[in-house]
Amino acid sequence: MADSKDFYDILGISKSATATEIKSAYRKLALQYHPDRNKTKEAEEKFKEVTKAYEVLSNEEKRKTYDQFGQAAFEQGAGQGPFGGAGGPFGGFGGQQGPFSYTYTSNGQGFDFGGGVDPFDIFEQFFGGASPFGQRTQRSAYSITISFQEAVHGVEKEVTINNKKQKIKIPAGVDRGSRIRFDDYDVVVDVKPDSKFGREGYDIITEQDLSYSDVALGAELSVETIDGAVKIRVPAGTQPNTLIRLSGRGIQRIRGGGRGDHYVRIKLTVPKKLSHKQKELLEELQREESGESSQDKKNKGWF
Asked: Where in the sequence is the domain holding 176, given as residue range(s)?
């Protein structure tokens, strides 16, 4: 039975596979076994397997549940166990788990994709828009460019679609390439880069320049975040390129709630010019580090 197989084995990946590796493995298998490309009965069953495995492993929360409890958490009959069936915290795999639940019919035979996976999106993303679902109405897509801060905090924009002005809401947390679905059209978002903030997923990265004395002795700094300035303490002896984490100071997650983190990367600034006093102090430090005293230097100068 397909259900007895391990989802990782079905996709041919390791349990430590990244999201990118999971998607790549699914794409390869979906191309190989899709019923419109492979007419064998075995291919249809295999396509069901890989789609079911991908639906779980591509979702971070479902993957954690699967790793802990196995397929029992996603079975229709799981209502008798700790998972509560379709009405429980995880739902039954055969029920409605996400915004999509489709049945595709090919040559008179039905094929259930299961909840949470939109077959239209699969073909748009993987097969370059060559969807076999001929009944689907082609959706128009429009692009919009917003600032980094607008992407982070969300924004309402007035746009003109088909010569008609209307307001659309861009949710907080969107990133470059995000596709937002409205009534009968989609909006693809482009985000302008920011001079202060870098972004990695839902995390923010900034850099903070410090002098040698600051990193050696420690310092208290005011750091600019997407929500305003906050004070942080840089411990004495902090090394260059150290990342200081500000938990929950990152970007709002579009799904699942919560926020990412803000990381401050410490950079060491070396002055190009020194005052006479600064030079004396650094020379004294250099001698101290090498074990040579000021008196030793004077003694050397007498000969």
From this structure: 140-191
How far CA 150 is from CA of 91, 147, 181, 192, 205, in Å, comes to 35, 5, 18, 10, 17
Residue 156: phi, psi to the nearest 5? -105, 130
In a domain, 287, yes or no: no
pLDDT given at position 156: 95
Confidence (pLDDT) at 140? 86
pLDDT digits over 37-56, tens only?
777 888 888 888 888 889 88
**Cα–Cα distances in angstroms (integers) from residue 247 to residues 175, 222, 244, in the given order:** 20, 16, 10
> Both tokens of residue 43?
């291919």
Residue 54, Cβ neighbours under 10 Å: how many? 24
Residue from 255, 256, 228, 230 nearest 245 by CA = 230
pLDDT confidence band for 299 (50 / 70 / 90): low
Has residue 164 been placed in a domain? yes
Overall pTM > 0.90: no
b/e map of 264-282 (b: 16 or more CB within 10 Å)?
Answer: bebeeeeeeeeeeeeeeee
The answer to whether residues 115 and 24 belong to one domain is yes
Q: For residue 300, what pLDDT is reported?
A: 53
Q: Is residue 75 part of a domain?
A: no
Cα–Cα distance for residue pair 90/68, rounded to 1 Å: 13
Cβ–Cβ under 8 Å, residues 111 and 105: yes
Res 57: pLDDT: 92
Q: Answer yes or no: are the C-beta atoms of 141 and 185 closer than 8 Å.
A: yes
Burial of 34 (0-12, 13-18, 19+ CB in 10 A): buried
| Tally of domains in the chain | 3
Q: Cα dihedral angle (128, 133, 137, 142), rounded to 10 degrees?
A: -20
